[in-house]
Fold each of these.
Amino acid sequence: MIPVTITLQYLHEGVKNSASMRLSIDMTAREAVQGITTYLSLPAGSTYRLLRQRQLLEHDIRLFEAGVQEGDILQLTEIDSNTTIGASNLGRSMAGSLLSRLGGKAGDEPLPMRAALLTQDGRSFLLRHTRALIGRADERVGYPPESFDVELTAMDNDRTVSRPHAMIVYAEGCFTVRDLYSQRGVQVNGQMISPSQVQAIKDGDILTIGVVVLQFRCETK
């Protein structure tokens, strides 16, 4: 048993709450949920699921396999047991909510100019939307490859890229990048950016997503 202290965020009777608690990282997500709901005396009759960095944890995954570590922030979400929503649909709902909250006008609004991310070996990822999602596809939690402008699975053998990892936003003639609370963070020209802030980027800047290095290129006036 390897205990860690985490912060749990959850809703109870419509009120946002948080609690600090100890969990064993060798327990499964299902076991963690059972222990959490008992500890917090949450009502029965609903299905609870655990999330880390907006990623739904499979019931049978052990917490250490999901990357849970000391000081992590986890979320407990409640799914009505009378509905048919599944993990994939919940993930899509979360992705859509994420896109609707961060910059731009619409998740599918086309980018009015040409911009791309270039890899060191010459590959090019064309940014198609005013909000371009960067990450690693995982259909089990609602992130199919087509939900990304920049899908980096093939370049990330060690899985350092989170499913939703970062977003590039084009608004009012400027580009910015935002870290979506990823596990390994985002660097711009070698400097780590804060997940709580957006960072302006310009043509030629170097973005590091996990361990994947990309150059941002865009039309300039």
Amino acid sequence: MSEYFLGVDGGQSSTTAIIGDESGRVLGIGRGGPCNHVGASEARAKFVDAINASLRAACSEARLDAGTIRFASACLGFSGGPADKQAILGEILASDRMLVTDDAVIALSGALAGQPGIVIVAGTGSIAFGRNAQGRSARAGGWGYLFGDEGGGFWIVREALRAALRWEEGWGSPTALRAMLLDSTGARNINDLMHRCYTPEFPRPRIADLSLVVNYAAERGDPMAQKIFDEAASELALLAGAVRNQLFEPPERVRCAYTGGVFRSRILLGRFRAALQREPGLVPTPPVHDPAVGALLEAYRAVGAVPFIGPAPRL
């Protein structure tokens, strides 16, 4: 009988499940809704629905029965962390071995195809994670929006709102960010927008999405938007450098991949790559695979299997 392996990337915007066979061939990919929180009963229900929906879709594409399949190994990575999810997953998923971890682990494995190095994940938040050839791992950042997440989408928008508020109140430098943020949100003024950001109308992912407005301003030469992107790039490079110092010895050259929504900005990516090259020994590296493929690779790794997974499947 064939053995099947499962990787799941569960995040704040969507969940992706990917099934492979013992040779490393990808059989099916499926998607569901967001599943990063399970604290309240409603959030738990959404979590279960997202996992089940993505698994059913992946099984359908792979022509497998979602109701009876048992995996040889499964790895599931979540942006909200694994602590409150293991028991729930044990009730809804059958697997001989199950690894529940955070999104940085699967992002690294996917971005560098399971090889040693560092990944910077910068979406709504930010974190750096690395693993060396001896299997030792380390992280930097990932403290959440109250205490860190430098260079992530929420942080970028928070800095843009601060700059726009200062300009609006007469104690900051002129910036086009004020007008652009108001046009994008329909707020009366930046003070009004700030107060909306404390309400359910503007959850953190929606706030982070406004980083596209900051990018638009930076592309059109707004000095404040460009300064924010310079600072974001520098902070992300510092995170990578901190992980390098924990895991790798000079003069070893270390690949550093980057993934997450903020890197869709051409300006930020260019400035991040430039900042990274100022950190000794770090080599900017485009990601090979998505985090969902990384989760699948970790599922193989958990049982000592080292399959060949070819070009990145279309997710």
